[in-house]
Automatic annotation (TrEMBL):
GO molecular function terms attached to this record: alpha-amylase activity
Residues in Glycosyl hydrolase family 13 catalytic domain copies: 14-403
Name of the featured protein: Unannotated protein
SMART domains the UniProt entry points to: Aamy (SM00642)
Biological source species: freshwater metagenome
InterPro entries reported in the protein's UniProt record: GH (IPR017853), GH13_cat_dom (IPR006047), O16G_dom_2 (IPR045857)
PANTHER family: ALPHA-AMYLASE FAMILY MEMBER (PTHR10357), NEUTRAL AND BASIC AMINO ACID TRANSPORT PROTEIN RBAT (PTHR10357:SF179)
Pfam families to which the protein is assigned, alphabetical: Alpha-amylase
């Protein structure tokens, strides 16, 4: 069953273009490479692809440093290739979502180049956040970049500009109408080319408040914004309430205007999903009010421990919060910014969690390679390219491990990804994870994903709410098992390292790993596994 509109309960496959498939042997994936592998994507059973940026860019931050938002970077091909990709995807009933990066441009964008040449106070500088130094020569405030180091860089005439990320990513000034006009043009440009939706980068960051004020604990705040640092939850939460540059009320006005643009394309069902890391979690629902965006990412599962208590809390909360604004949640276990789920919680656990999540209401995002059960790539420091590695002088290793190219075929690295030298090395130990070898292995992660996505379409999409059967709050085994009913299906997940018996009247549809033993109503769920039963 297909939910209506299409994005409501879609499975959306995130493609990181540089790492997907290289069509021309230069060691980097490209748009024709994606087009060439669309049959694979279609056979996986997803509904849409989300393309991480492929725009003209010096590529200091994996393309999230955009020098021309309406142009294709030559490393990925050209505009014709983008059109062909969209057409080929549509022919296979796959929608295409593009990334839009409105918080900042690359310093190579012609606006910023003009701003550098223009005097202080000029209209060219007013498109960014340029300010004079303090009287003692220090930057206008003490904010720290999310990639480490100060969030201000000084230019020749002594002024500073703001960059929440790398110094090559100057933040745009959204109080300047020229900025919103330019983004409206960009949205229309891609929609006119056939794009079906947008993933909005740093959607919560566009509006800054108190820009000339120091934050009382900039280092604490910067640490709190990093998920990889252990920090006392109360301290983190208290600090997150004080961010002067995220989740300000003004961002919602911007998305209300964008929504009008999307809706003006009658019959196209253009959607947008916000990358909004906000606190407290209830704030995320503001982005999906009826006149704003369609979805907001829920990032909880990127960091959640594989325990019944934690998973129950985040899943139940996300469903409940979204329901308050009549929206459905989103689920993601991996993306290009975080460690791959297999490396974080384990191979079997990752398969179990994926199967558990595929049954839930809402949309699911799958990061390319997740379906193969890929772990993070092993890299040496000389391979790394993430700006956060350089800006922290190697203290933070960065996100390259999750971005290692996909292994497609053959017995030797680079496993068919390229005929050249891959931009990040692919370990020889990945021979078991190639698409080709997994297609041959009925017990592979790829088969699990293909089968699960078929069943999701058949039994789960559009089947309404879930009812918890086992949870820390609902039943006797709720520390060991999580289970819910949805439609005619019951989904059980065993979180422990030993088998667990459960009572369920129904026939096994799928199990993520191991074998389910059945004695009439009593079923034995393997350790670290998830199973679906149909009544
Ligand atoms: C979020 C993107 O997902 C990430 O990859 C990027 O570095 C930052 N936004 C800055 O654009």
């Amino acid at each position: 069953m297909q939910s209506s509109p299409w994005w409501k309960e879609a499975t959306i496959y995130q493609v990181y273009p540089r790492s997907f498939f290289d069509s021309n042997g230069d060691g980097e994936g490209d748009l024709p490479g994606i087009t060439a592998r669309l049959d694979y994507v279609q056979q996986l059973g997803v509904d849409a692809i989300w393309l991480s940026p492929f725009y003209t860019s010096p590529n200091k931050d994996g393309g999230y440093d955009v020098a021309d938002p309406r142009g294709v970077d030559p490393r990925f091909g050209n505009l014709e290739d983008a059109k062909e990709l969209i057409t080929a995807a549509h022919q296979r009933s796959l929608r295409v979502i593009a990334d839009i990066v409105p918080n900042h441009f690359s310093d190579q964008h012609h606006w910023f180049q003009a701003a550098l040449k223009a005097p202080r106070g000029s209209k060219e500088r007013a498109r960014f956040h340029f300010y004079d130094a303090n009287s003692d020569g220090t930057p206008p405030n003490n904010w720290i970049s999310l990639f480490g180091g100060p969030s201000w860089t000084q230019v020749e005439d002594g002024q500073f500009y703001l960059h929440l990320f790398d110094s090559s990513q100057p933040d745009l000034n959204w109080e300047n109408p020229e900025v919103s006009e330019d983004f409206e043009k960009t949205l229309r440009f891609w929609i006119d080319l056939g794009i079906d939706g947008f993933r909005i980068d740093v959607a919560h960051g566009l509006v800054k408040e108190d820009i000339l004020k120091n934050h009382p604990d900039p280092q604490g705040l910067s640490d709190a914004l990093r998920l990889d640092l252990a920090m006392d939850t109360e301290k983190r939460n208290a600090l997150l309430l004080t961010v002067p540059y995220f989740d300000r009320q003004g961002v919602h006005e911007i998305y209300r205007e964008w929504r009008k643009i999307f809706d003006s394309y009658i019959g196209r069902d253009i959607m947008a999903v916000a990358e909004a890391w906000v606190h407290p979690p209830v704030n995320a629902t503001r982005y999906v009010r009826a006149d704003e965006l369609h979805q907001v990412f829920n990032f909880d599962l990127l960091t959640a421990e594989f325990t019944a208590k934690v998973l129950y809390d985040v899943i139940d909360r996300s469903i409940a919060l979204n329901a308050t604004v009549n929206a459905l949640p989103t689920w993601a276990l991996s993306n290009h910014d975080s460690p791959r789920v297999v490396s974080r919680i384990g191979q079997e656990q990752a398969g179990a969690l994926a199967l558990f999540v595929f049954g839930l209401p809402g949309s699911t995002y799958v990061f390319a390679g997740q379906e193969l059960g890929l772990p993070d790539g092993e890299l040496s420091d000389s391979d790394r390219q993430d700006p956060s590695f350089f800006r922290t002088k190697g203290v933070i290793k960065g996100r390259d491990g999750a971005r290692v190219p996909l292994p497609w075929s053959g017995d030797a690295t680079p496993f068919g990804f390229t005929t050249g030298k891959p931009w990040l090395p692919i370990s020889q130990s990945w021979s078991q994870f190639t698409v080709k070898s997994e297609l041959k292995n009925p017990k592979s992660s790829l088969h699990l994903y293909q089968n699960a996505l078929k069943l999701r379409k058949e039994f789960m999409n559009g089947s309404g709410e879930i009812t918890w059967v086992e949870s820390p709050e609902h039943a006797s085994k709720g520390q060991a098992l999580l289970a819910y009913h949805r439609g005619s299906v019951t989904v059980f997940m065993n979180l422990t390292d030993i088998t667990q018996e459960c009572k369920v009247d129904g026939k096994l549809l799928i199990v993520s790993s191991g074998t389910v033993d059945a004695h009439n109503e009593m079923k034995v769920i393997p350790a670290r596994s998830c199973a679906w039963f149909i009544a």
